[in-house]
Every structure is written in structure tokens, then in C-alpha cells.
């Protein structure tokens, strides 16, 4: 079908995420490892949502900018905007997993403000941390961290969406004015009407460059609010740049290197979005369980119907897998940054493209599924705006589009994997634990098909986007299986609910990986694919299936009794 190529791959990445041996003591981070201080950060965030966001939800939805600015200021007073800002510039410097913890808890009830918060504290702030000089950090980070100023990120243009680096905004150096003259439009800018400062990308003769543009600069204006399907409480508008004179000291990073800032900034933002999706998913589940325990049909509570219980179980399972994945990913990045503190932080984080993109895909798709089932459980009432799940459902849709569409992120995962794989290690099979065996077989089959793809010209593989989609989905599935397994193993004996959920995640996850491998083999090599399909379906080394329906019923008891997501 394809010619030979020189791409070599293997069954393990050089670094992340499959660096641990499943039989070794699991040295991973889980939500159960949060310190007392970090738990206090979570409680502070929960209180902030209860006292500052939920009571003002309707005002925020109506674009009450004054209320939103006051909300940002309140978040700043609590330190919630300064989590990742270095201490030297007035921040807390607490790392990615704590930043994710805050994003999760604001996502749990924060509605549209969750998006505004993530943009401000993420892509609206991190470029200064990672690429700013000392003067820029001193000037902007203190204001952004305190909530005195709101930040925004301006990359997308009317003619450049997923292909964001093909924008037409231009910056021309003017010697007489000793400034860069920026002209162009940036579309769908979050926090557009609230922001005091924007991170703006424009083309120069040397390539894309990043500029710091303040709202009060002459020639800066903002268009009307976009009329959107959801996240109506988030300001979204066009940023218009009409011959804006930007002084040379407002160039962020190196001239012509803006593309690196754009991509590296979005990389970690995807992980933070996954945390926010996690929080919103938990809220949707809690609303659904509580509604199901109040609403009766045919003289029975909704939660007494087996299919409703199955929905609740599947929601809890998806959230557990996502939660395990994102906390382990964030902690790995923190660990890598700490161990490589002398290296360029953006280069260190750039090694985690596959993890961040996978987390974004999974977070947005878990939220989509959970929100959809939440509306279904609410029935007709779920379609009514007076019920919160209706807004959650509408708001959820954008998460599969922004920070790179899920299609673009799947391509990013596959491209990263193709570049990181190396020679395959010696084969080994694991004994004992059935979940470890499911993972082992999934990894083995994944490695085999990746080796087959190594015999195809790399450009052909990347151009065949169906291949990339299947590779990304298998990688994501195995990563979730591993994350859940390692979390449960670390919890030890007595973690009955975690064990039940991990049993289901590993068995169902293997089934999805197997189906994807069969589909790929059939496309890559017809004759060999038929043989491999027979071999895979024989399941020689795969554990026998268990009663998943019974396990899910047991899981539902825990969740219904807890009246919310539980582990």
C-alpha cells in the first residue's frame, strides 16, 4: 500500500508517560497526595465559587463587566490568580498541579467565569512568566496576579483558525517613532472587553513575533460582543489594531520566534482546560444524582432504574479516569521542571505535547458525554434554562473547539509520538494482576502497529489522518488505563471503589484499543492485517472478561449514596 521509510519506533516513549514499570512501586502523584496546604487552596477556591460566582451567575451571563472585574479582583485578593507566578514577582509559585486544582474547583460551578479565569491565569499570564524579561515581569505580573489588570491572548484571526500561524496581522518597524506599528484584527478574543493588556501575535519581516499591547494604546479598539451558543458570561470579541505604535520594550521574547511562544503557551493551556472540564463534569454528575434522588417516575425514584444507575456509573468512571490522568500529567511536568530547573522551561514543557493534548481531548469529551447524560437524566427539565444542566450542556460544546480543535490535538499527539518513539525494548509479559495484563497487552499491540507504521514514509502516515486519529486514541486510552491502575495500586488494600472502577476502565479500555488496532492493521497491510486480526481476536494472553454489569451496579451504589462524584 505504501513505500518503505526510515522511521523507527518502539513500544516506550523516551520520557513520558509510560516510563514506570507496572510491577514497580508506583511513584506517581494522585489527588490523594494533596498536602494540607493544597487542600486548603481547594477549599478556598470552593468558597470563592460559592460566594463570588454562583450568586452573580446571572449578572455575569448578561456581560456585567463591573461584576466580572470585581470577581477578578476578589480572586486576586485570595491569591487564585498568582498560583504559577514566581514569588519574586508577587506570586505563589505553586506549580502545575496546584494551578490545575484551582482550575478544577472554579470549573465546578464557575460557569463562564471559569473560561475567563483560565485565559487570564493561563495564556494571558504564562507568556510573561516564560518569555518576559525582568522589566516586563515586574510591570505586568504583579498587576495580573493581583487582579488589578485582566489579561488576554490574541492569536486567532478571521482567516486563521486551526492554522493559527497563518495570520495576516502585521508589525512594521518605524524608525522615526522608534516603535513597531501593528495593524490587523484578532478574532474571538476571550476577555476582550475586560482586558487591560493583550499578548498579540503579528508577522514581521523576521517571522511571527509576540507583542505586549495595552488597551489604552492609541489605535486599539474592541468590537461588539459575539452572540454565542454558550459561555455567554465570557467576553468574546474582535480586537482591532489600527496602526498601533508598540514600543520596542514591549516585544515579548525574540523577534521572529513568536510561533514558539504561541505553540508552547497553548500546550500547557490544554492541560489546564482539562482540569476545568473535570470540575464541570463533577458538578454535572452531582446535579444529576441529586435530581435523580428527588424525581419519581412510575412511583419509583429515577436512581432506582438500572439504566439511570448505569449512566451515573459511566459518568463517575469517566471522571475518575480523567482525574487520574490530569493530576499525574501535571505532576510529571512539575517534576520535570524541578529536575531541569537550569533548562529553558518552554523546552521542558514542550516534551509533554502528547500528554497535554491527550488531556485536553479527554477532558472535553468526558465533559461532553457527562453533560449530555446530565440533560438526559433531567429529562424535559434538562432542556429548560432554569436548570443549571442546560447551561452546562451549552457551555461544554466549546471545549472541543478552542485551545486547538480535538482533531488538531489528535494530529499533535500522533506527530509527537512518531518523533519520540525509539527502538523497541525486549519483550516481557507480566503475571498476576489482571489489570496489569490488560495494560501490558494493550501496550504490546500498540507497539506492534506502531512498528508497522514505521515501515511507511512518515509524511504518508501523517497525511493519512485516520491513522493519526486511531494512534492518538489508543495512546490516550492506554494512558488512562495506566493512570487509573497506578492510582489504585498506590491506594492499596481497602480501596474497593477505586478497584471496581479500575477493573472496568482496564477491561473496556483494552477492548477499545483492540478494536482500533484491528482497524489500523486492516488499513496498513491487508494480508498481514487479516492474520493479526485473527491473532488479536483469539486473545491468547488477554484475561477473560468479568461481569461488568454487576461491577457497574456496585459502583452506582457508592455514587448514589455519596450524592456526588466519589472514589
From TrEMBL:
Highest taxon above the source species: Bacteria
Protein name in UniProt: Acyl-CoA dehydrogenase
Key words, A-Z: FAD, Flavoprotein, Oxidoreductase
Protein family membership: Belongs to the acyl-CoA dehydrogenase family.
Oxidoreductase recorded as keyword: yes
Domain Acyl-CoA oxidase/dehydrogenase middle: 152-244
InterPro entries according to UniProt: Acyl-CoA_DH_CS (IPR006089), Acyl-CoA_Oxase/DH_mid-dom (IPR006091), Acyl-CoA_Oxase/DH_mid-dom_sf (IPR046373), AcylCo_DH-like_C (IPR036250), AcylCo_DH/oxidase_C (IPR009075), AcylCoA_DH/ox_N (IPR013786), AcylCoA_DH/ox_N_sf (IPR037069), AcylCoA_DH/oxidase_NM_dom_sf (IPR009100)
Cofactor: FAD
Organism encoding this protein: Salicibibacter halophilus
Residue ranges constituting the Acyl-CoA dehydrogenase/oxidase C-terminal domain according to the UniProt record: 256-417
Reactions catalysed, as given in the entry: a 2,3-saturated acyl-CoA + A = a 2,3-dehydroacyl-CoA + AH2
Pfam families: Acyl-CoA_dh_1, Acyl-CoA_dh_M, Acyl-CoA_dh_N
Single GO MF descriptor: flavin adenine dinucleotide binding
Upper classification of the organism: Bacteria, Bacillati, Bacillota, Bacilli, Bacillales
Acyl-CoA dehydrogenase/oxidase N-terminal domain residues: 35-147
UniProt entry tagged with the keyword Transferase: no
